[in-house]
Write a structure and sequence with these properties.
Blueprint (H helix, E strand, L loop, with lengths): L10 E3 L8 H10 L4 E8 H6 L2 H5 L8 E6 L3 H13 L4 E6 L4 H5 L10 H15 L5 E9 L5 H12 L5 E9 L6 H4 L7 H10 L4 E5 L5 H8 L4 E4 L1 H5 L7 H6 L8 H19 L4 H4 L12 H8 L9 H18 L6 H8 L2
Parallel strand pairs: 1-2, 1-8, 2-3, 3-4, 4-5, 5-6, 6-7, 7-8
């Protein structure tokens, strides 16, 4: 666990659909011991009716790990939260920020910000179900559509806090519920960090963490002068080696003790265990570590070997050997980018 003098929400990796599954979280935990990791959003109904183990299974190494739930029915969210507590999650988080059409049709995610009293009812039901020791938190936006009214998000937090919520993770963009895709909602609505800072000033008694567009240590350090925590999304996924410095920079601990090569080998061993225990195909795991050599010479051919569908039926360790050999050759011989793809295709012959 993180040092007790620091907020558990000091650094976290955002819940990201189709990305932060248990394999991704295992990989991230190899890089940082203290950072809080979040599951993808899991629909409460999926947990109750679609296979509890399939949705809640995780690796013991992932702690601290939080379960993010989606839904809008207090009784179902309460039961899903109770199951999450039984499975040993360190936090239960309610999604009030996802703007996807599918989530909107279910009237949850960002749509819930229109109904703060319902969110409060959901939070109260979840807190009653898990007891007072397990945090129930909310992740939300700063507004809905193009209305940039500070009072809207201020009143949302005020109402939800009356149900006992004391931790708010704030994505510093509005969610435009019409006219933008989920991807566009992560880029087009303007970032307004000052709104989150204002919320912390108005609610100093609560833990307020910020999310949205943060990609450098300089920005993280600046935000930590105003707020209790920083949540990193896409940059953590695409440039995971950044996480290897976080324990040292933000927790006063040691950096990741493993070089990249040993992290990759640890993932190969994990792929082999997963295949033996659960029948998991290694490409389902390897996709999460394709950013491990981000920005290094030779990284492109290394990624191409690991993502080459022609190799998917070969053992993970054999593919690892091919990837490392190709990477070493690319670095040593300075292979031009123009000949990398043919070289990669030749590996599968």
């Amino acid at each position: 666990m993180a040092p007790t003098t620091l907020s558990p929400w000091r650094m976290s990796v955002a819940p990201m659909m189709d990305w932060t599954d248990r394999h991704c979280r295992y990989f991230h935990r190899l890089l940082t011991r203290h950072t809080l990791l979040y599951t993808e959003m899991v629909n409460a109904g999926g947990i109750l009716y679609g296979g509890t183990e399939r949705h809640l299974r995780y690796n013991a190494e992932e702690h601290p790990v939080a379960l993010q739930l989606g839904g809008n029915e207090p009784d179902k969210l309460a039961e899903a939260a109770r199951l999450g507590a039984q499975w040993g999650y360190d936090e239960i988080n309610l999604n009030c920020g996802c703007p996807s059409d599918r989530v909107q049709r279910g009237a949850f995610g960002a749509s819930l910000m229109k109904a703060p009293q319902l969110v409060a009812d959901c939070v109260k039901a979840m807190r009653d179900a898990v007891g007072g020791d397990l945090p129930v938190t909310v992740k939300h936006r700063i507004g809905i559509d193009k209305v940039e009214d500070y009072g809207f998000v201020r009143d949302f937090i005020g109402t939800v806090a009356e149900a006992g919520c004391t931790v708010f993770i704030v994505h510093a963009r509005n969610a435009w519920l019409q006219g933008l895709s989920p991807k566009e909602n992560r880029d087009i609505p303007p970032l307004r960090y000052e709104v989150v800072h204002r919320l912390k000033a108005e609610f100093p008694q609560f833990t307020i963490a910020i999310n949205g567009g943060i990609q450098t240590d300089a920005v993280v350090q600046e935000q930590l002068t105003h707020l209790d925590g920083v949540m990193i999304g896409r940059e953590a996924y695409h440039n995971p080696w950044w996480l290897a410095r976080w324990d040292q920079l933000y927790y006063g601990g040691a950096p990741c003790p493993l070089p990249r090569e040993e992290v990759e080998l640890a993932m190969v061993e994990y792929m082999e265990r997963e295949a033996a225990q659960h029948g998991t195909p290694w490409p389902h795991i390897a996709r999460h570590m394709l950013g491990l050599r981000h920005s290094l010479p030779g990284a492109r051919i290394w990624r191409q070997v690991w993502s080459n569908h022609l190799l998917k039926d070969r053992p993970a360790r054999e593919v690892h050997t091919l990837a490392v050999q190709s990477y070493a050759s690319a670095v040593a011989e300075s292979i031009p980018e123009a000949v990398i793809e043919p070289a990669t295709r030749a590996l599968a012959v």
